[in-house]
Specification:
This protein is of the alpha/beta class. Helix content is 41%, strand content 14%. Strands 3-4-2-5-1-6-7-8 form an 8-stranded mixed β-sheet, sandwiched between helices. β6, α7 and β7 form a beta-alpha-beta unit. It starts with a strand and ends in a 14-residue tail after the last helix. Its cofactor is [4Fe-4S] cluster. InterPro entries: NifH/chlL_CS, NifH/frxC, P-loop_NTPase, Protochlorophyllide_ATP-bd. Pfam families: Fer4_NifH. Its EC number is 1.3.7.7.
Length: 288
Amino acid sequence: MKLAVYGKGGIGKSTISCNLSIALARRGQKVLQIGCDPKHDSTFTLTNFLIPTIIDTLQSKDYHYEDIWPEDIIYKGYNNVSCVEAGGPPAGAGCGGYVVGETVKLLKELNAFYEYDIIIFDVLGDVVCGGFAAPLNYADYCIIITDNGFDALFAANRIVASVREKSHSHNLKLIGLIGNRTTSRDLINEYVSHCPIPILEVLPLIEDIRVSKVKGQTIFELAEKNIELNYICDFYLNIADQILSCPEGVVAKELVDQELFSILSDFYLKSNIKTNKKLDIKSDFLII
């Protein structure tokens, strides 16, 4: 099974991807996580260092694929999760989609792409072009990370559109949304009431998760020394169990931009009127 993890930039995709990779490994799966970001830090909390990228390795070998071995590009991380960083083109030049394609091509030539039960593509930012959508070409399912705010849900809606577009060419489905770092989910619920998508989990804002990333470790690794953190691991294990249940998935129809804005702003206004909260729609709605 191949999963592509998408969402607004800074929403916590890499943190969720790393912990989800471990959760799936704990369920007996052989897991490969592929970071698709020029920062090449997707797998940092799994390996505790910035591993060399596919592009760096190819350049060092003068793009002679025959001179590259699996151990040159695949690194073992915590809980035996395999890690690859695709890297990216120089700033302002090239296409990230090309880099993802070269990564998959190399893994296939090394007979490594089909050795895993689960492959997770951790993809940077929003889908703004075909390059950003490239990992969807190789995925069976897409997972969208969001929070309870307009910007993240707007990005989620664009990702829904990308999944629908890619589903015309191969069997790609949307497995569901994961709410992240949010104490409420009313806007998420309002969105999925108009664009029916499963909600896999909603993770609250937990300081220990932030601390784990600062320490360069996953929450599972920290929980080995502090069993009180096991309840956080259960969030990720719950998501893993839902994924392994082989859900049917959906191909949803995205909302038109103006429709999305109207639905969420109207809902936000009504909910604040009910609670008699004073708000400035020009400021409050834009920062939720």
